[in-house]
Design brief:
- The protein is of the alpha+beta class.
- The protein contains four helices and 17 strands.
- It has a four-stranded antiparallel sheet, with no helix packed on it. Strands 8-11-17-12 form a four-stranded antiparallel sheet. Strands 15-14-13-16 form a four-stranded mixed sheet.
- The structure holds calcium ion (2 copies).
- One calcium ion binds next to strand 15.
Length: 309
Amino acid sequence: MLVEYDFGAIEESKYAKIELFRDDSLVIELTEWFFNETGSETITEQMPTICGMSDDFRVRIFTLEGDTGYSAAFSIDGYYLCEFIEAPTGSFLMGSDSTEWAHQADESPAHTVTFTSSFEIMSVEVCQRIWENVMGANPSTFSGDSLPIEFVNWFECREFIDSLNIIDPYYNYRLPTEAEWEYACRAGTGTWFYWGDDNSTGTVSLYGWYNPNSAASTQNIGSLEPNTWGLYDMSGNVYEWCQDVSHDDYSGAPTDGSAWTSGGNQGYRIQRGGSWSSQAQFLRSANRTSLSETQRSMSCGFRLIREPK
Ligand SMILES: [Ca+2]
Ligand SMILES: [Ca+2]
């Protein structure tokens, strides 16, 4: 779906919050970071597939200059820019044991992690359009507005986030902790994948871009089935940087969902979820890998956590 709307009423604003209503009910809240043009323009954004296609949609826009009210007519023929999903408080079993298919030693010991606060995680990977508008350049190996950003090292992700935190007056952003990432990926499941214990190509291909179905490239974010919390591409498309330093296994890992940055293999950061080039075993919810924090990979991008300022 593409959403087209006229921002002629917005001047000199670098930020707009957009609410999309369907039949007078708020169905989605979007955050737009890069309005600095004057005059009218048509913006084509990706909209969540949950928006549907044929109902009565209206967009309400809030900017630093105030509420602009409902927009004029617009059309929907696409999908979203960015949406954040609230992960509720709760506990889950992080990691896997040796009975799991393709289990690796660094997934042990499985351990209970408890979140006493909810958090908000981006429903998709950061796409190139967002990165380019914040950073003014696009280092990706593959090219496309709706493709995930990749070929950015861990420090470059931090630079992007620092810039975003200056632009956005309402939220601070950061990388997920590894525990937050796996909790959100599993979305209440304890199976190999968030769709169950099914590693058949037909089933995996419904949820994740990986070696058998990706045509050796990243694919548009959010274009396959999400998990039950509404998160897309937690398996496949690009690996996703987390805050945590790599460790050989979970011995001594925190159990409160915080980032594990002491000890371990300093200089190496966790990546999660497998990628377009991976085989199915690496798309498992428990799978972990790491990369030097100064290294770039055409298989690795990231998504964001946000917290109110
Ligand atoms: Ca991914
Ligand atoms: Ca692994």
